[in-house]
Amino acid sequence: TPLSHIRNFSIIAHIDHGKSTLADRLIQLCGGLTEREMKEQVLDSMDIERERGITIKAQTVRLDYRAKDGQLYELNLIDTPGHVDFAYEVNRSLAACEGSLLVVDATQGVEAQTLANVYQALENDHEVVPVLNKIDLPAAEPERVREQIEDVIGLDASDAVEISAKTGLGVEDVLEAIVTRLPPPQGNPDAPLKAMLVDSWYDAYLGVVVLVRIIDGTLRKGQRIRLMSTGAGYQVDRCGIFRPKQEMRDALGPGEIGFFTAAIKEVADTRVGDTVTDEKRPATEPLPGFQPAQPVVFCGLFPVDSGDFEDLREAVGKLRLNDASFEYEMETSAALGFGFRCGFLGLLHLEIIRERLEREFNIDLIATAPSVVYQVYLTDGTMVELHNPADMPEPQKIERIEEPWIEANILVPDEHLGAVLKLCEDRRGRQKTLTYAGSRAMIVYDLPLNEVVFDFYDRLKSVTRGYASFDYHITDYEPGDLVKMSMLVNAEPVDALSVIVHRARAEARGRAMVEKLKDLIPRHMFKIPIQAAIGGKVIARETISALRKDVTAKCYGGDITRKRKLLEKQKAGKKKMRSFGKVDIPQEAFIAALKMD
Ligand code: GTP
């Protein structure tokens, strides 16, 4: 296909505004799949994605479209992940195309997530076509949303396309807009090969599959290539495109988006944003903007049943095969035994991995408090990165501790503004700007990541009854008055419950934690003190009173079958508990203790 007949685009949309539905429609209209093959939402291929309605892995599809001008066009749709944790992947997907469709639900309007992605698209010099979706719904207000797009984003929305991705109404117009309004790619077929690595994943049949956008030159079957960030060399053994089914090709040329395989062992060897070049005739400069993804949130994952440790080892290994941004290393906890310290791109990423371990691999897990990465400057002049509160150096060796800060963008209807400001202030936030778009406030706050990482998003949703939208990126490290708070259950420190907190917030946090633990730990035959302490100093305390022996005896005495049933039930319940000294702590206590309502 000549460059003038190629269009590369992505779809930008807030969660639930209809990105997947529109993508499916486009595939259907261009004949990529028959009706029968057209399973619902083909682009979201993983189960958990489908269940949660989010897209994790970027995928791409090539469409053939005969436009009204009679010409046949090659359209490449790059699917972008829809969550803040995957911001860098989104950025690289956008960098691989020349334009995007901005899909906005005409019953909802612009959201924070949409904003962040549109700005990234504009930074990548995209032509952006606004698409107003769900106009089949009576609540749709295309006029109001059009104005909002102009006011909030500053994008001309006068020729926004109005569609219903669900019924198919107006979807042809979207295809026409792609052809007539988005620019074709540019590239030099004679220059040395330069391709951007957009995504990669592990396929059971093909091994590691690499998705690339060819910028210059040609990628061929049999060619020796090199990844510029590592210098590693490979031989291409297959290349092709997705429609969305794979189709093998002998070569991919400038402007094209497709995949190759090259006997690459691990997904981790292929970093998103890297430049693929020819080994014999390499490009002189890599593509700009490469930065390897860094995990920002860490937590410990331990099997509830220590006998499951080997299964857990195998499971994390398997997950890592397909997810280079997930890191793990072995960890031992005095309280929890053997497990893994794991690093994630963000909280959603953590949740997804934890859930997959429990569901797909059937391992009951205890997850310890998520922690950000602290930079601890020691009095001897060195700096250590702290991923685990348990590894905190002695206070007298510490010169200062720095913590990551984020810039958060929050969009919220006027009536919930007060609650959001209070939440941000409570979390040590510093307000930067407050502007209005119609009846919605747009707030920019600087916040310490450590205050956001745990339950900020849940709290934000609950104080705004789901009406706020939120997006963030890490900006900087700043010194903070941070201390390690330990939790003692029955006078024994439980390392898996220790957290790093700001000194000013320690007491409130400690009190909340001991109160939670008091509710979550069942009564035993003896009194159990629960204490929060900094250094040796107790700052909060609760006591769980003892069970009275005669009460249990009276309840369960006599009826032997009932007693047996009860014992079995207790056994099952025990599986989800861990013993600390003489005390059984239920699995959910580890996470619940940290929630601050
Ligand atoms: P994520 O994958 O979570 O980012 O969501 P998405 O943006 O891909 O949204 P998706 O396509 O899954 O659509 C969200 C919901 O809106 C689904 O229940 C769709 O059936 C519905 N939906 C999408 N487009 C339309 C439309 O034009 N009209 C109506 N009535 N519903 C629609």
TrEMBL record:
Membrane topology qualifier: Peripheral membrane protein
Record has Nucleotide-binding as a keyword: yes
Protein name per the record: Elongation factor 4
EC number: 3.6.5.n1
Annotated Tr-type G domain residues: 4-186
UniProt xrefs under Gene3D superfamilies: 3.30.70.240, Elongation factor 4, C-terminal domain, Elongation Factor G (Translational Gtpase), domain 3, P-loop containing nucleotide triphosphate hydrolases, Translation factors
GO biological process, one term: positive regulation of translation
Keywords: Cell membrane, Elongation factor, GTP-binding, Hydrolase, Membrane, Nucleotide-binding, Protein biosynthesis
Family membership: Belongs to the TRAFAC class translation factor GTPase superfamily. Classic translation factor GTPase family. LepA subfamily.
GO molecular function, one term: translation elongation factor activity
UniProt KW Cell inner membrane keyword: no
Pfam families hit by this protein: EFG_C, GTP_EFTU, GTP_EFTU_D2, LepA_C
HAMAP family xrefs: LepA
Main subcellular location of this protein, as a coarse class: membrane
UniProt-annotated binding residues for GTP: 16-21, 133-136
Entry GO CC: plasma membrane
Reactions catalysed, as given in the entry: GTP + H2O = GDP + phosphate + H(+)
Organism: Methyloceanibacter methanicus
